[in-house]
Amino acid sequence: MSTIERAEVFVASPGRNFVTLRITTSDGVTGLGDATLNGRELAVASYLRDHVVPLLIGRDPARIEDIWQFLYRGAYWRRGPVTMTAIAAVDVALWDIKGRVAGLPVYQLLGGRSRDAVMVYAHASGTDVPSLLDDVAKFRDLGYQAIRAQTGVPGLGGSYGVRKGEVYEPANSNLPDEQPWSTEAYLDFAPTYLRAVREKFGSAFHLLHDVHHRLTPIEAARFGKSVEDLRLFWMEDPTPAENQEAFRLIRQHTTTPIATGEILNSIWDVKDLITEQLIDYVRTTVVHAGGITHLRRIFDLAALYQVRTGSHGATDLSPISLAAAVHVDLTVPNFGIQEYMPHVEQTMQVFRTNVTLENGMLDLSDEPGLGVEYDEKAAERYPYDPKYLPVARRLDGSVHDW
Ligand code: GCO
Ligand code: MG
């Protein structure tokens, strides 16, 4: 029987920080898992190195479900981003190994294709309406079928989601960058710029918007109502999601579709949202929600309630997670959309993947496993570089949800 012989954790910063797990079997087969938790990277690296790797050595790498249960139930302490990201890294690496051993891409092990390719959404942003419109035009020309639109709020420096140059990278500071926030200014302005996008480009593409957890339920209801005629694909994270019941109130007032889940980690975190049909898209991801094994469990529950998938895919999810997401997205019956932001050149020197983008759709070739290689030597050129996500403060100085 082949056993797990080695499990190594790499922390590197090729353009941004990534934590990567590589599992090697006694037959010399390797598998990769992403363990990146933006701004809290070393906590997951230690959880893996100090508490999980010793438990893996000597186990049968083919027993993915059993290892998942062992790590989840065996920790005693349930859920949480650190634990679930660490378990995810192991789970994804084991699916990679299973595919390589079988000589099949992971999506074949998951039941094969349900679709030819995976629709993604691009990120248009600007500092004001004209620059946002220019950016939307750019993504329309590149062939994207779905575009998320965000822009700065006049008079407020540093709103969520506004790209500087070619790259959007919120974790950009050695200590958290403290950014001002005014809900009133946002609620006055955001519907105006979303309307400007529809007026200029029409309705022949999907328009998305990320509220980024900043509104109360009744404010979110007002926002959703005010943009109903713009036919948004979704409003994302309208209110913080740890209180699942809060979404009932939003639902009572608006038909604008709702997406949430990027910061949630388990099926329990989204159970009420799904079973009460309080959301339309669940945004949990491979990396932060316990790997392929657990994500599929969430997506299957969602399918029963006509909730579709819309996994998080910002650049703080490594190319391993993006590849794993595409394998899952290709197979699940209730796929909705996949978030996609291209990684920078340095990142792609370290992670080589076979994921391709054409006309706003992702696909991958038939290499066994996930189809990702990690270049350890290249990674050594990019040591860990501590960075934090920003913190939002209301105009009176008090902390708000970022
Ligand atoms: C998104 C997200 C990201 C997060 C980031 C935090 O919808 O892509 O909200 O932009 O803020 O992933 O690390
Ligand atoms: Mg988001």
CATH class of the largest domain: Alpha Beta
Distinct small-molecule ligands in the complex: D-gluconic acid, magnesium ion
Strand tally: 18
Q: Into which percent range does the helicity of residues fall? A: 25-40%
Shape: globular
Largest sheet: 10 strands, mixed
What is the second-level CATH architecture of the largest domain?
Alpha-Beta Barrel
Structural class: alpha/beta
The radius of gyration over CA amounts to 21 Å
What count of domains describes the coordinates?
Answer: 2
Integer average pLDDT = 97
Q: List the quaternary state of the chains.
A: single chain
Strand residue content:
15-25%
CATH topology of the largest domain: TIM Barrel
> Number of helical segments?
13
Give descriptors for this structure.
402 residues, 19% strand, 13 helices, 2 domains, 10-stranded mixed β-sheet, TIM Barrel, binds D-gluconic acid, 3-stranded antiparallel β-sheet, binds magnesium ion
